[in-house]
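hey m, so remember when u said the tokens were messed up on ur end? i reran from scratch. heres the input so u can diff it against urs
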Amino acid sequence: MIKILSVVGARPNFIKISPVHKAFQRYNGNIIHKICHTGQHFDEKMSKIFFDELEMPKPDFYLGVSGGSHAGQTARIMIEFEKILLEEKPDMIIVPGDVNSTMAASIVASKLGIPIAHVEAGLRSFDRTMPEEINRLVTDALSDLLFITEDSGIQHLRHEGIDEKKIHFVGNVMIDSLISYLPKIDQSEILTELGIEKLKYILVTFHRPANVDDPVYLKELINLLNDFSAYGHVVFPVHPRTRNNFEENNLLDKFTGGVLLLDPIGYLDFLHLTKNASLVVTDSGGIQEETTFLGVQCITVRDNTERPVTVDIGTNHLIGKDLKKVKASVASIMEGKVKKGRVPELWDGKAAERIASVISDYLKKESC
């Protein structure tokens, strides 16, 4: 009997592990798959609703670690996760993405000699001021199986001297979830609830420190979003970090009526908004992938992206943080100057099946 333990800590992790969990269920009980929720992001709207919507079982373990500095959070996750590993003794852990939980769990498992599989490995922004980049580098260096979403990941890992036998190009589990839930996504009534059904709108999300922690830049960003309302409604689900910064700087009353500020919303509703938007403006990583698959124009307000395939062949426009350039790009796209784009290789809804197969074969060989 093979026992595998997946570690989730933040909203995108749930989306990535859901199809993997379902893939393991097809192994007729020969693989026991358990889930550990570190609690890194725990909010009713940001966490529990995701387990419900993604039809995932209640986590087998909940560490309750949230808040604090990067170092403090990572250390507390390591301390609590070590207890779980010593008790459970899994044959392998799976860590998705690039959050603190991913790196912390990888370090603990590596010290205990437990094999590690990294889902969404090899992505690089080459910006070490981003905590996620450090998490990626450390996790990939420690992992025994590295599951790649796009060709750039293979090239980066080769350049870093990773053993070729560890690298597996499997596709994108985020897209697995999207494809699986398309029927339910289409049934969402979020547009009707917002009163903008059949109306044009721009969907925006911002949460990265580089965009929301500087009060001066934040004021300029609000002015820009107000300007966007000339094209229709602006729908803005506000991340808790971003809302906190708005409140601390007394900026919430600076928005005009054309900007709809929402609390964080569920996965299905958010993808319904994404699919039907005229344009998405974001600093998120995963949204760049989802818009590319859906054929929706996306402007990324960052100076770099760890997902270059979305720019090279997808519908993503990497504009940078200069808001004048962002404004010009929005105007151009809303006037019809769009990228056609296409779906990247192996983004076919079967990535989780490939991951489960590779892990099963690897652990069988290890046990021989």
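this time it looks ok to me. The chain has a mean pLDDT of 95. if urs says something different then somethings off w ur setup not the seq
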